[in-house]
Amino acid sequence: METNLTPLLLSLQVAVLSTSIVFVIGIALARCMTRRHFFGKHVLESFFLLPLVLPPTVVGFGLLLLFGKNGFLGKLLDQWFGITVVFTLTGAVIASIVVSFPLMYQSAVAAFTSVDRRLEDAARTMGASEWRLFWTVVFPLAWPGLLAGFVLSFARGLGEFGATLMLAGYLPGRTDTIPVAIYFAVESGQMEKAMFWVIIIVALGMSTTLWLNWWSRRNLRRYANQK
Amino acid sequence: MLTVSIQKQLPDFLLDVCFAIQKEIVVLFGPSGSGKTTILNSIAGLVTPDAGMIRLGDTLFYEHGTKALPVQKRNIGYVFQDYALFPHMTVAQNIRYGVKEGKEVGLDELVATVGIGHLLDKYPHQISGGQKQRVALVRALATKPDLLLLDEPLSALDADTRKECQDELLRLQAVWKIPFLMVTHDREEAERLADIILTIENGKLTGEKRGARDLATR
Question: Which end of chain B is more exposed for a tag (fewer CB within 10 A), N or C?
């Protein structure tokens, strides 16, 4: 069996890119949403979490409408930056961002909510700006939860299939991430090839969750008797 | 001089108080849930009143209808009920958090006076309640505030430590000569520490008298 490692590289590329973007956006939105109360907040939050409950094909369909040649964002991206989304790796990254965003967002909201508000108030009374208190107090204390969100998003990005297939399709060597490669290997009867990628992705997933478990247990103990 | 005249609607009653304090220890005394902490938070800028005015010396903190002065610019020290020390920072980092570079003058002295010099490298979860209280006090004074707010600062301490910390507060106020506004629901503590005791019930001031210490020293 010839081993072409492109699916692994593409998968990692997509997961690293999408997770980095999701990490920043998720944290920024979670911080805004935990600090502000406004009309329609619950509706907006439900919208954020929608990709978690919708079938990936539905998410992919929505993205196709949005980013397709005649889609609103698709047109803009094409006209302004000459970027095509459909059938490209960019499409795979966008699909991955959308499906992993709810995981990062939820983890970040939980992490920020767990930080004692009084600590933020204390920092304010000592003259700290919102920016400084975020980086010196909120972020370090929320870090275990934020990292958990990061790892979950990464794992989700690595395994994304449905929306990716709808938006980026299957172009060997260009958009065939591991899950897509598995599907088409089985489809064409190449069970060995499929098995190879299955083992790789199970190993990746398993080591990720093992590490996350170990790490969070170690860190939860850190400020255990802080009161 | 600190002048406070504020109204704020709380879930159970209308907070409506008016008082002025000099460079002395003033105790807000009253049962839990009578609006004491809301008064401190309004002065600190953590809560915005519905109406009224708060002024410290020449600085207007809040006046109804104008933009309130942000918390960060009020230059006040605040000792929170459970101290609110940053758990991920050492005692030294906690104390230096609000101190601007080049303005550390007097900080070592303060640390020595309060006797926490040997704790500087420790984390908050490694020190006792009384020690945390002292660290919180030093942290609040380290920014050289014009006013110190204390919310039940001694309520979590045992009787002996509590008395030591009360003495500490009296000493510090005598040295710093800024208004200390302290909230407590402990009558004995109020009597022992206060120059003036303001009694508050359901959001209204119901009494003002001089503390026992003040009468004794006259």
Answer: C
